[in-house]
Amino acid sequence: MLNDVKKLKTEIDALEPLVAGMALLPDGTALLDGKIFVGSGANLATARTMSGDATIGNTGVVAIGTGVIVNADVHTNAAIAFSKLATLTDGNIVVGSGANVPTSVAVSGDVTIANTGAVTIGAKKVTAGMTAIADGKILIGGAGGAGAAQTLSGDITMTNTGVATIANAAVTPLKTIVAEARTATAAGLTTGTISDTSTMVTVTSDSADKIIILPTPTPGRVLTIINGATGYELRSSAPETVAINGGTEAGAESAIGASMILTMTCVSATAWIGTSSTAAGVQGVVQVAAA
Fold it and tell me: Domains in the chain and their CATH numbers?
């Protein structure tokens, strides 16, 4: 019996702080609209209005205040889904504005960006000032397609102003020879006409009456023509106006014998001068062209 009395007293003592706190309410028996009990510094239940970053209604609904959530309030592991962010126009990115406000803008100017993140450099947007190349070097595509800065060397060098210089003795006969094979034809057409770029021609003919036609006359040009065991007829590109050793007329041509080596020099836009040499080195002149 004594133990029961002691137990009851302990329970009553525990209730005293709560009862004392309730006695502090304005009406002594109820809790005012929208207030909550909060333990005071004296450990007494006290009616308070929730304020600060959040408020509470009399239904228990808590509302976080506008503009009160700051960066420090968000946990580093929050992993907020992109779907929770404000919508962003297709292909736009977020850039700080002049007022330091994140703003949706489209990438423009020298590059554009797709909504896949792919960036495209606009045509003719990369200028010389955007590329760093060492003094005097040029940009050359490498084996993998990437450009590489290299110094122009060998037979030609170049300064940083673009002035190129051919090295002494760099131009050899082999580098100036453009060789081709021609076959004489009845009218000198197709394979019977020497191209305007050739410098050395090997002629094949199956008749001394078939024709080889010289290229368009370019003053200063020197052409070497070598033929085999059968001769041919040599004409200028315009027999009536372009002479071979002074001869011009319609159908004018020079008879070339077997196994000859000719040196044809264009001395003007209307004249070729020709010399000949046999395989034994005997020198002569090409026949004056005549019909």
Answer: 2-64 (no CATH), 87-126 (no CATH), 133-166 (no CATH), 174-285 (2.60.120)
